[in-house]
Every structure is written in C-alpha cells, then in structure tokens.
Here is the input.
Amino acid sequence: MVKSVSERTPKARVVRLGGREIIVAEGQHLGFWADISHRCMTASWPSFIAGAALVFVVFNAIFAGFYWIADQPISNVPGGAYIDYLYFSIETLSTAGYGDMHPQTHYGHFIAATELFTGIFSMSLMTGLIFARFSRPNARLLFADNPVISSHEGKPTLMVRFVNERHNIIGNAAAKLWLMRNEVSVEGGTSRRFYELPLARSEHPALALSWTLYHVIDEQSPLYGLDADDFAAADVSLVVVVSGYDVVAAQTIHARKSYDYPAVRFGQRYADILDRTEDGRLRIDYGRFHETLEG
Here is the structure.
C-alpha cells in the first residue's frame, strides 16, 4: 500500500548547536522548495555554483528537446541534430542571440519566446542571489582553538581569545559568553539548560586587534567548583557571540564560536602574542595565537 504524502515519514533535520549535531524537527513536513532562498544563501560556494550549473543545463536540455521534436522550427540547423538545438537553446536562454540560428515557425517562435522569458527571469534571480551572497556582512574573527581556565588577577578565570583578522575597526563591539549543560530535574528528567556567563568586560569601543574575554569563576558562577570530569558529566558547551559595527562595510556584523567540553584546557593560559618591534611598533605573532602554556 502506497502512503500518501501526509503519511510518509519526513526526513529528520540536523542542526549544529553548541558544537554538536542535534536531531531536531523530527516529523516536520518541510519540502525542498519550501525555503529555497534560505538554502541558496546558506549553501557553500561550490554547492551553489554546482547547483546553478545543473539548473542551467537541465533548462537548456528541456528546451532543446522541445525544438528537436518539432519539424525544423529553427533555421540553419543542419540535419536537425539535437546538439545544435542545445546550442540554440543556450543562446536564447542566456539572451546572447548570435543570429546564425533563429526561429522560422510559429512553434519555434513560441518556444523561443517562452525560453527567453525564462532566461530573463532566471538571470535576474541569479544576479540577485549572487549579489546577496557577496554583499552579506560577515566578520573575519579568528577564535582560539581552546578556551582556558587558570588564575587571572589572583582568581580562577575562564578565558576565550579572538582577533580581528581584517585589522579594521569594529566599533561598539559587544561579546556574550554562554554556558550550556545537561541538568537533572527533581523529577529525574534531563534537560539542556543555558546560562549567560558574566564577563569582566563585555564591550570594546574599537576592536582592531585581539580581545580576550574573562569570566571570573566565583561563588555566583555556574562553573564554580567544577573540574574537567564535571564538565564531561554535564556535557558542557560554551558559545561565544560577538557583534559590532564594521566601519568599512558600514554594517553590523556578527560572529559565533562554539566549544565542547574536550576543548576546554584547565590550568593553562594563552601564550602572549603581542610585543613591540625595535622601532616601537606593536606586533602580533599569529603563529602563537592558538598556543597555550601551563600556568
């Protein structure tokens, strides 16, 4: 017995949250074309280009077939070969129109007009998608591979370091650090809870170089008294969210980085990457950016 569309089991959607894959929205009926613009915007550039090329080939193959099944709808097509109709279809769909081949019947003119409209529409749509992908603001922030927990200013502190790779000014930069962990309720049920970790400094007036976030682990901190084993037992994840105003792009940009508990290094600190050259200029050593040291 064939199931109806509404009875078929839909494919579960997979998203990444806090550095791990979580299966969500199981049982949700969401077709491929339901949010195609979002898929086009979030696909990688190789996938986007490959998809656009595939659509281009399929459209031309279909219209070439319409020309091919008719009785010489296009002039100057020797022998009525399919490949020649495919070339004519490409000229028409792309609105190039070299002129050596042209419709010579009402059927040919009708198919060519339909294809021309499709070409104009698809080219406009593709132009808009490419422009949106190129003009979309993005932050070039490089985050350290590992958060560290060690003593800072005499207090146990969680630290996360990142740097502005563009070295332009990100004005009014703001950062938030979130903790996610599993907790067992009084009834014995397990749920995923999240907490915002207070930072010693959550705003930066002009982020151009590096910035280290500090969360002091005191009695009020959700991390107070936890060690590496406790992190693993609670399946701890950390999420850093940074936003600010890019003065070059004149747009607000956002960046996000997730860490799972194995990435957190206890009893270590970041290697110093800032020093000065002999002529007094500030220098950043990116070769040591991800390096951590004991202490």
